[in-house]
Design brief:
Helices cover 19% and strands 34% of the residues. With 80 residues, it is α+β, with helices and mostly antiparallel strands. The protein is globular, with a radius of gyration of 15 Å. It binds copper (II) ion.
Length: 80
């Protein structure tokens, strides 16, 4: 994935994977990781970046190849 920040420094953090990288305005930062277990993993911002900091979170879903192929096929079907 590629990290970009448009306003201030943020920090992309997946605590369970101990994976963290700053996002810096003006830079495109390439990140590479290989999950070894399926599941859902919380994504947080680990930098006190402003008033909206508390809302900066998401989920990473790591699927098996079979689940991913099903998801991709459904997505392609939706496009048509
Ligand atoms: Cu933040």
């Amino acid at each position: 994935m590629i990290l970009r920040a448009h306003d201030v420094i943020h920090s992309f953090f997946i605590p369970t994977m101990r994976f963290k990288q700053d996002a810096v305005p003006g830079l495109a930062i390439h990140m590479h990781f290989t999950p070894i277990q399926t599941g859902e993993y919380e994504i947080l911002c680990a930098e006190l970046c402003g008033l909206g900091h508390y809302k900066m979170h998401g989920m990473l879903k790591v699927l098996s190849r079979e689940e991913f192929d099903k998801w991709l096929a459904a997505r392609e079907a939706d496009k048509q």
